[in-house]
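Appendix B: complex inputs.
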Amino acid sequence: MKLTGAEILVKSLEAEGVDTIFGYPGGGVLNIYDALYDCNLNHVLTRHEQGAAHAADGYARATGKPGVCLATSGPGATNLVTGLANAYMDSIPLVALTGQVATNFIGKDSFQEADITGITLPVTKHNYLVKDVKELSRVIKEAFHIATTGRPGPVLIDIPKDISATRTDFEYPETVNLRGYNPYVEAGQEQINLAAQAIAGAQRPVIYAGGGIIASHASAELKQLAELILAPVTTTLMAMGCFPENHPLSLGMLGMHGTAYANYAVSDCDLLIAVGARFDDRVTGNVATFAPDAKIIHIDIDPAEMGKNVRVDIRVLGDVKNSLARLVERVSAKMATEWQDKIARWKKEHPLSYDQKCGGLKPQYVIEQISELTKDREAKICTEVGQHQMWAAQYYTFTQPRSFISSGGLGTMGYGFPSSIGAQVGCPDATVFNIAGDGSIQMNIQELATAVQYELPVNVAIMNNGFLGMVRQWQEMFYKRRYCNVEITAPDFVKLAEAYGAEGIRVTEAAQVKPALEQAMASSKPVFLDFIVEKEENVFPMVPPGGSLNKMIGG
Amino acid sequence: MRHTLAVLVENNPGVLTRVAGLFSRRGYNIDSLAVGRTENPRISRMTIVVEGDDLVIEQVTKQLHKLVDVLKISDITSEEYVDRELMLIKVNSADQSLRAEIMQIVDIFRARIVDIGRKSLTIEATGDEGKINALEQSLRPFGIREVVRTGKIAMLRGQKSTSMESKEEE
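Resulting structure:
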């Protein structure tokens, strides 16, 4: 029996095991929505296509499955762009489907036409414009394969309206044949041996773990290695939770707003084992003074990351999980030395701290309370971007991979709320928080309607300080307190929440924090928690941009 | 240092944009890029001349490899290879007395005159970059109206080849 392109799309998604898509209808995807009418796919209607892209991304990060979003041609498609760029920077598997004007209208500046494959070329791992319905099922198969293998990333499929209407025979391909794409890399034994030798000879090893640990499901192997060689583990923002932060070997996050002891350890180590990380500038600070005494082992699946930013001595190219497991077999246990004592001393002398006594309600305190109240349950902690994001990374004790969901590479304000919706859809039993600022939450606040419509009990904890806090902090520190356009007004979040049919709670004092959080977590509705916090609180420690990691302000 | 890359790509729509876009967004400088299909109509070959130190070339190569449509990349800079470029050049020849001199230069460079106008001559030349540059220099005093160059194409000498069948090199 011949099926339309739209029916083929739906059948193909089902064949890929997709259960949920986040989307927004429009003229260019009418055929696809007509096919969705008859299928069992769960479609979440967001209030903006950017929300759909971020929700699919949050769903992917929370579940480990690829996220799928769907938008119409033209503005629908262009609204996905930030979401795609965000997923691309953080290597998140996403398949974005867009409608396109009919093939005979392409290139004629037709109504709601946008060259979305051209626009998204630099922010997708690959993309397709389907010009023949016979190619559609193969393209979908390839798209999921590319998105989820190797270093994951977003793939976009642009489907012209006549293609979704045309009928052809449907058979979903079982295999892909892409001769230019070979994602399955296994590290050479020689490289594993070299790494093992370097570990054996190291006096002061540190493991620097990145998002690749989570993408590759390698938390267990990471823990084995760390415990075997007694190497402290510092994680990037992307890797929070891949190594339990209540573990004695945990150093927390490194980098610009990392812990002082993580930054000291990296600066002082003689062997840095970078795993699934990419030496981002927010991590390294000045590359010339980054880990100056260390031999560097880089374990990663993407050859282009090896030596891109920082010189690397031993390159272990391959799947992180496989490489770590084989490395564990090759190394022998190490005994505790002065190095572990030194790190313990740093931890004691330079803990993360804030002044709880002076000023108003402290955002750090709120986050500590969220951490405390959710520690015994499955929790997904999403964030927006800014000061609250850094405080969340610093003051929430992450112990599980995929429990922290945040825009790392692109730094997308407005990411957190839709991603928390995606996380809640993917993990209905989890307690989901979106830790937000009063600036960021206003960037995709329309998604509150989505959360209410689908009865998703996400808790939005707004650190409301009346400022675009991180920009204000930089203006304070580096621009002589010339506060320019960083004071931001907001609606009454409690009333707003109620207007949408959600719950709103305002908190102004420390004593109210715990009861408010408990009330929110007990509610079956989405809840906006409006925490009126100290206005000019800063995030410390801080490595000034371009500075050396061991020269922190407030360390 | 200038490197010559032989890049085999799927002959898909947009593949040139993908490659060119990669160079521009990562800040690499293309000296020249020539593209056309190979013995296999589904595969195109690009000869890309790119300026950069070893680190840059390593990044260029690795980033190119990440493009799904890129099949194989060979840096042939240090290999023995034949390279050619085609140039069409239109020079002033309003002064009839200089035509003989121009034709003499054309002969010396084993180029050909392919069109004669009332006030201009169009010359076709092939050769390596050095020869093409030298010819252009030699014709400059007469007044060059227009130059079009294909960019370099290159092929390894002897038995070696950079086609899909030959062994992959990083």
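Chain A has three domains: 2-169, 189-349, 363-532.
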